[in-house]
Specification:
Distance between the termini: 28 Å
Order of helices and strands: EEHHH
Largest sheet: 2 strands, antiparallel
Shape: globular
Number of helices: 3
Helix content: 40-55%
Number of domains: 1
Strand order of the largest sheet: 1-2
Structural class: mainly alpha
Radius of gyration: 13 Å
Amino acid sequence: MNNNNLKLDKGSVPFQQGSVRCLLLGQWGSKEWANQQLRYAIAILNNHVAGYDCLPKGRFLDALIIKGLLKEHGFWWQAKILDHHIHRFQGGIRE
């Protein structure tokens, strides 16, 4: 596995939420969960997740879904940081 790829911690449990593979670490909706979702979404945008083969538009949509989850659970700071990464990603998309 490439060093740039996201590594799952021993206690992490991947699951499907719609088309997004989310990670559960600690308690759902906790600060630890929010920070892990932020790291995961940034890794998706940078194409650094092993086994995650998706077109740029799909990566963009998955990051938006995670951003919505963060906002829904009140993690405005993580959503704001993810929004900056989404905008950077949008500038790099070439059809």
